[in-house]
Specification:
Number of strands: 4
Number of helices: 5
Low-confidence stretches: none
Shape: elongated
Order of helices and strands: EHEHHHEEH
Radius of gyration: 16 Å
Mean pLDDT: 92
Helix content: 25-40%
Structural class: alpha+beta
Distance between the termini: 29 Å
Strand order of the largest sheet: 1-2-3-4
Length: about 130
């Protein structure tokens, strides 16, 4: 049986992540998509918020991380979001986090965005403790 998933798409926040000094000084937009796999049968049956993943709390977690301490790489930002989601939300068994930097400036290129996707399971994260 395929897992149930709570998804938040297009979370757009401002942060100061990146390798270049301009990125750290001026900041830029980041767009985050989060898919959290969890068994949601109890939530569907009971209609109880404590039986599911509260997406308001997921949004707040993503905002706290993106608007918080700067990192150099999108990979590190996505890892931090996935890891924190798995550790904070007990119903979540797998987290897929896509972090995009729209309008990224790369000399001599035109592209819509640069992005990474991080895919972690609870077992992987608990093994990293």
């Amino acid at each position: 049986m395929a897992p149930d998933t709570v998804s938040l798409a297009g979370i757009t926040l401002y942060g100061y992540h990146g390798v270049r000094s301009e990125e750290r000084t001026l900041g830029q937009r980041f767009v985050v998509d989060v898919d959290l796999d969890a068994e949601l049968g109890d939530a569907a049956a009971t209609d109880a918020l404590d039986s599911t993943v509260n997406y308001s709390e997921v949004y707040a977690l993503v905002a706290e991380i993106v608007e918080g301490e700067p990192v150099n790489l999108l990979e590190a930002l996505g890892e931090r979001i996935a890891r924190c989601a798995l550790l904070r939300f007990p119903h979540v068994q797998r987290a897929r986090v896509r972090v995009a930097k729209p309008g990224v400036a790369i000399a001599g290129s035109v592209l819509r965005e640069a992005a990474v996707t991080i895919d972690r399971t609870r077992a992987e994260v608990e093994g990293l403790r």
